[in-house]
Specification:
The structure is a single chain. By secondary structure, the chain is an alpha/beta fold. The chain contains ten helices and six strands, in the order H-H-H-H-H-H-H-H-E-E-H-E-E-H-E-E. It has two domains: 136 residues, no CATH class; 153 residues, no CATH class.
């Protein structure tokens, strides 16, 4: 199979680079018949960076594909996620607008107009985008959560390590937060907890009276523990792994699943782990030793 063909026989996108000096020289020599001015936005710049890093090729090959037969390229579906996150939205319906915005994305074929036939000929009506938003939603809904987590923590982190994304100082922060969701039975395993609308646990719960406790608002939520690799020489950080569960899942339980597994997969990468008192029992044992320094923040 050719290097530029991905899963399902779909062609992977080509990478183009800015050559301003070359273009200016061609203009001076009269070697350009047509020119079109365009302005690159941040999504344009980001997608260009992703293409040049060959991340889409890696994701297309390794993502835990829930489909026996792919009607849409995996790299395109992942690109849709990139576009949504860049625009800070989790609503798939917004892809109707986002897939038609962006100069460089339009030229790469990520954002396409009504003349596109799409990736299959199943649409009865003319297309306005290359894919339907619901098709993207169902693809990621059908991917098993445990498989995504394992893929993110193993395959993708191995790729990041090859790209030297981890800071060489080896400083990591372990923290848990609560993700508040609407009070809807479709959110499986969401548990009502004494947190505000931003997911922060109410402080000093032990000192509250019974009447004060009854007045607290409980929100349905999930618990998310993240392992962050901190850039010492810059202000960047990298999400190296995560554990996700019901809102009442203890942070220590999530940490015991995540930290030893990460250290086994990437020995010597973690040198200093910073955590709060909720993880105070995270002490290495002879059966599962972790050769790192632990700093507990009050």
């Amino acid at each position: 199979m050719s290097n530029n063909i991905g899963v399902g026989g779909f062609y992977l996108p080509a990478v183009y680079q800015k050559e301003q000096k070359q273009v200016a020289a061609c203009l001076d020599d009269g070697r350009i018949d047509y020119a079109d001015l365009t302005k690159w936005s941040f999504p344009d710049e980001f997608m260009c960076f992703v293409l040049q890093s060959n991340l889409l090729q890696f994701v297309d090959r390794t993502y835990p594909n829930p489909r026996v037969k792919n009607e849409i390229p995996i790299w395109f579906l992942i690109t849709c996620q990139f576009i949504m996150r860049i625009h800070q939205t989790g609503r798939y319906n917004n892809l109707r607008y986002l897939l038609n915005a962006g100069s460089i994305l339009m030229r790469y074929g990520f954002n396409v107009g009504g003349s596109i036939a799409g990736f299959n000929g199943k649409n009865a009506k003319p297309r306005t985008t290359a894919v339907d938003a619901d098709s993207v939603r169902k693809f990621f809904k059908d991917t098993k959560a445990a498989e995504i987590r394992d893929w993110y923590g193993e395959d993708l982190q191995s790729w990041f390590r090859i790209q030297k994304a981890f800071d060489h100082h080896g400083v990591f922060i372990l923290d848990q937060t609560h993700l508040v969701v609407p009070d809807n039975p479709n959110y499986k395993d969401a548990v009502k907890m004494p947190v505000d609308e931003h997911g922060q646990l109410y402080k000093n719960l032990g000192s509250l009276t019974k009447e004060q406790r009854k007045a607290l608002v409980y929100h349905p939520c999930y618990a998310l523990s993240t392992l962050l690799n901190v850039g010492v020489d810059n202000e960047l950080f990298h999400v190296a792994d995560y554990e996700f569960g019901s809102g009442n899942e203890d942070e220590l339980t999530q940490a015991k699943n995540m930290v030893p597994a990460f250290c086994r997969k990437f020995p010597g990468l973690m040198k200093l782990l910073i955590l709060d008192r909720g993880y105070i029992e995270l002490v290495p044992t002879k059966q599962n030793s972790i050769n790192i320094d632990v700093f507990v923040k009050n």
